[in-house]
Amino acid sequence: MFYHLLKYVLLGPLLRLVFRPRIEGLEHVPASGAAIVAGNHLSFSDHFLMPAVLRRRITFLAKAEYFTGPGVKGRLTAAFFRSAGQIPVDRSGKDAGQAAIREGLGVLGKGELLGIYPEGTRSHDGRLYKGKVGVAVMALKAGVPVVPCAMIGTFEAQPPGRKVPRIHPVVIRFGEPLDFSRYAGMENEKAVLRAVTDEIMYAILALSGQEYVDRYAAVVKAEHEAAAKERRFRRLPSS
After folding, report:
1. Running DSSP on this structure, what letter comes out for residue 27?
2. Model pLDDT for residues 95-123, shown as the tens digit of each residue
3. Nearest CA among 43, 205, 49, 235 for reference residue 122
4. What is the DSSP string of 67-117?
5. How does pLDDT run across 51-64, given as a tens digit for each residue?
6. S-S: 148 plus which of 26, 77, 115, 203, CB 3.0-4.6 Å?
7. At residue 156, does pLDDT exceed 80?
8. Are 46 and 154 in contact (CB under 8 A)?
9. What band does 74 get if pLDDT is binned at 50, 70 and 90?
10. Reported pTM
């Protein structure tokens, strides 16, 4: 109930008024039945803008840190994300990927829409990074179509580190559903999972027009953070 209150009364109209997003290809999202919507991830606001324009409810797998903050603020944040249809997923440890897959298959098993960011994290520089194969595992195991989606302009509206979005034109573009039924029963084949994931990422790239980087975003982000830390260390006065 609170999900619909957020979408139609509280948050959705505000997002539409402020960002005035242009929606393209909405007819490609199935009107019923289970499906995966796989998109690029440029901004914190992506979590709210896409659900605001869809006709159906969509559930996203969100990082567990959104649900574990301390104090009153943390509890309110957790309650907000749960009410907005987000499912917490612990991304640490070797079993994190399997936990996300189990949660995602549970959503699809109920005939619902599942939102996934195959890059696994927000892009720190606006480029599109290599997708993780979890999206392929879920698509093949559940036997559902994958709708590619491109968020355009949200990086400029709210880049990483910016708490309050700035006014900037936003386009949300959906592509034709991708059918992977030809790979049915092959969800344990690594080469197949990589091929399916790369096809999904190529479809997102064709919609978004981003520069593509054939590396995982989390790895590149960690390298940049380490380099920045090293630069700060070198500027410290020696004792």
Report:
1. G
2. 667 888 999 999 999 999 999 999 988 99
3. 43
4. G---HHHHHHHHHHHHHTTEEEE--SSTTHHHHHHHHHHHHHHTT-EEEE-
5. 888 989 999 887 77
6. 203
7. yes
8. yes
9. low
10. 0.86
Distance (Å, whole) CA 34 – CA 136: 15
Contact between 157 and 170 under an 8 Å Cβ cutoff? The reply is yes
Structure tokens given for 203: 């479809």
Q: Give CA–CA dist 212/214, Å, rounded.
A: 6
Torsion over CA of 188, 190, 194 and 195, rounded to 10 degrees? Answer: -80
Tokens of 93: 């440890």
Q: Read off the pLDDT of residues 13-60 as tens digits, 9 standing for 90 and up.
A: 666 666 778 999 999 999 999 999 999 999 988 888 888 889 899 998
**Residue 19, helix vs strand vs coil:** helix
146-152/171-174 β-pairing: antiparallel
Output the six-digit token pair for 12.
Answer: 């959705």
As a residue count, the chain comes to 239
Nearest in space to 188 (alpha carbons), one of 101, 69, 80, 114:
101
